[in-house]
Amino acid sequence: QEQLVESGGGLVQAGGSLRLSCAAARRTFSNYTMAWFRQAPGKERSFVAAISWNGRTTNYAYSLKGRFTISRDNAKNTMYLQMNSLKSEDTAVYYCAGGRTDWPTVSPSGYDYWGQGTQVTVSS
Fold first, then answer.
1. How far apart are CA 14 and CA 43, in angstroms?
2. Contact at 8 Å (CB) between 26 and 76?
3. How far is the C-alpha of 83 from the C-alpha of 64, rounded, in Å?
4. Could you tell me the pLDDT band of residue 75, with boundaries at 50, 70 and 90?
5. What span, in angstroms and rounded, lies between the C-alpha atoms of 56 and 118?
6. Residues sharing a CB contact under 8 Å with residue 120, sequence separation 6 or more, in sequence order
7. Alpha carbons 70 and 63: distance in angstroms, whole number
8. SS3 sequence, the chain?
9. At residue 31, what are phi and psi to the nearest 5 degrees?
10. Greatest pairwise CA separation for the chain in angstroms
11. Which among 122, 59, 62 has a CA at the least distance from the CA of 94?
12. Using alpha carbons only, how large is the chain's radius of gyration in Å?
């Protein structure tokens, strides 16, 4: 069972930036495709971005591409999400997820492990 812990959320003004981190407890992190999802109040969980085990392949929600950047450091068992030009509609709880899927899929069912989430609030 992999444990994932998100950090870096908080309150930021519109136009600002935040970097989220997702730390894994085990070295098997490097075997997993990793992803970020988010869930806004009253809405379903939605895909943000995903990255292959070696970092060479990334996948983004079309509407977020260009503002958000996913990356990982396998030596540190950590994944990141750099979020720039934040908008009020980016307000949500952000979750990291990991799984053995071969492709950085947008589907939550492709991921076996989930963090507890970190709140991001963007004030307008």
1. 21
2. no
3. 9
4. very high
5. 26
6. 9, 10, 12, 18, 20, 38, 83, 86, 90, 91, 92, 93, 94
7. 14
8. CCCEEEECCEEEECCCCEEEEEEECCHHHHHCEEEEEEECCCCCCEEEEEECCCCCCEEECCCCECCEEEEEEHHHCEEEEEECCCCHHHCEEEEEEEECCCCCCCCHHHCCEECCCEEEEEEC
9. -85, -15
10. 40
11. 122
12. 13
| Token pair for 4 | 């994932």
Q: Are 94 and 6 in contact (CB under 8 A)?
A: yes
Give the count of beta carbons closer than 10 Å to the beta carbon of residue 23.
16
Which residue bears the tokens 């307008």?
124
Which amino acid, 64? L
Tokens representing 46 are 């939605």
Q: What is the pLDDT of residue 104?
A: 87
pLDDT per position as a tens digit, 18-70: 999 999 988 888 899 999 999 999 999 999 999 999 999 999 999 998 999 99
